[in-house]
Design a protein that fits this description.
alpha+beta; six-stranded antiparallel β-barrel; conserved putative lor/sdh protein from methanococcus maripaludis s2 fold; 4 helices; Elongation Factor Tu (Ef-tu), domain 3
Length: about 425
């Protein structure tokens, strides 16, 4: 007889249909999730740097290098051109003020000096002759004046005698008038002699004065010429060390040509290169610190060189109080140039993230440390260790500060422990 076969509910066909449906639903769900949700990337924590946001003292400064130089450097230039005849010292010599360094020769200057000395001698001789002639002329005029005085007195005496005799009718009118005419002539002659003497006196004074002025000018010119010849011996203008001497025996040097330099050993300064980006914030009096031998020394900008070379400006910094011992010329110093006063701020450690984000956002780690997601932030000033956080983070937040170069447009990071 026939037997009724019981039909199974979970047959293979039904299982295949259900499994296919579930897989299709999962595929659709995953597609929807990944197309509409945020992109993620698995990252191992040992390959990244996680830093904690903290509150602390912040001061904006930049690290710069400074080269040790003497506080004062004197440059030696040739005051007169000539041929190097003799060197009295060599590079590195310690000099005293006015100590000879080298001697130049210049035949043109020597010849000009000889000509000038001859001219001065001629002017001196001429002045002496002028003075002698004036004195002799004065003597002659005074002799003429004395003769005129004597003749006038004699004519006056004769006139007075004849006038009495004429009044007494002792002599005739012709004899009387003759003595009168002689008297009047001697009066006029005396006056003329006096005028000539005065005129000659003024003329003599003028000639002597002009001769003296001419001689004085010639003497000044001679003095300048002798100084020019004296400048052929190059001397140290100050006490110091001759650090450079560019001159060899037989070499010709032009007037104004650089011969070397002398460093005044009274102290040290540092010549510092600063990126032109900070040029608007650099000013005389700005401070900095220099760590040397476990001690920090305060420094201050004393001079700013306005010329920009290689995208950098140069400044001179001097030590405020004590100067480090055993400093050497040419030594390189690491200096922290302070750009702001110290203040309390929210800080995030510097890292490679800034190159990709520009400081506009950062990956913030969640409380469990399993995920990191983008958050917008605003950063302020910086120093070599920290950025100043203005917005977007708080104390205790943890963020990824290492480079984001391989993350592309990833929105979230899944943090995996190795």
């Amino acid at each position: 007889m026939d037997r009724v076969i019981e039909k199974k509910f979970w047959n293979s066909k039904r299982l295949m249909i259900i499994g296919g449906s579930i897989a299709l639903a999962a595929l659709i769900g995953a597609s929807i999730y990944f197309s509409s949700g945020k992109s993620k990337l698995n990252v191992e924590t040992d390959r990244i740097t996680i830093s904690e946001i903290k509150q602390g003292p912040f001061q904006e400064f930049i690290p710069v290098d400074g080269v040790v130089l003497p506080v004062t450097t004197i440059y030696l230039d040739a005051l007169e051109g000539g041929r190097v005849e003799q060197k009295f010292v060599e590079d590195g010599a310690i000099l005293k003020k006015n100590q000879p360094i080298l001697r130049l020769s210049n035949t043109d200057l020597a010849l000009n000096l000889a000509n000038q000395e001859t001219s001065v001698f001629q002017v001196l001789t001429q002045m002496q002759n002028t003075t002698n002639n004036a004195e002799q002329n004065s003597i002659n005029r005074q002799t003429q004046m004395a003769d005129a005085d004597n003749a006038l007195k004699e004519a006056e005496r004769l006139y007075k005698v004849n006038k009495k005799l004429y009044d007494q009718k002792v002599i005739g009118k012709q004899e009387y008038e003759s003595s009168l005419n002689l008297y009047n002539y001697q009066v006029a002659r005396r006056q003329l002699a006096d005028d000539i003497l005065k005129q000659d006196g003024s003329s003599m004074k003028l000639q002597v004065s002009q001769s003296k002025e001419s001689y004085s000018r010639m003497q000044n010119t001679l003095g300048l010429m002798r100084k020019k010849v004296g400048d052929l011996i190059v001397r140290s203008p100050v006490d110091g060390q001759l650090t450079t001497l560019d001159a060899e025996i037989g070499q010709n040097k032009n007037k104004g040509e650089r011969l070397g330099q002398i460093d005044v050993m009274g102290g040290f300064k540092a010549r510092v290169n600063v990126d032109e980006h900070y040029s608007s914030r650099i000013f005389i009096g700005l401070g900095g610190e220099c760590p040397i031998g476990g001690k920090t020394y305060k420094m201050t900008i004393k001079k700013i060189y306005t010329q920009i070379t290689g995208a950098r400006i140069q400044v001179d910094m001097v030590f405020n109080d004590s100067v480090p011992k055993n400093l050497r010329l040419g030594q390189t110093l690491q200096i922290h140039l302070t750009l702001s006063d110290e203040r309390n701020a929210l800080l995030v450690s510097k890292g490679g993230f800034y190159q990709q984000t520009g400081g506009n956002w950062i990956f913030k780690v969640n409380e469990t440390g399993t995920m990191a997601y983008k958050v917008d932030i605003q950063l302020g000033n910086q120093n070599p260790d920290y950025y100043e956080v203005l917005q977007g983070l708080k104390v205790g937040d943890k963020v990824i500060t290492s480079s984001y170069e391989n993350y592309g447009n990833i929105q979230e990071l899944v943090l995996k422990k190795p």
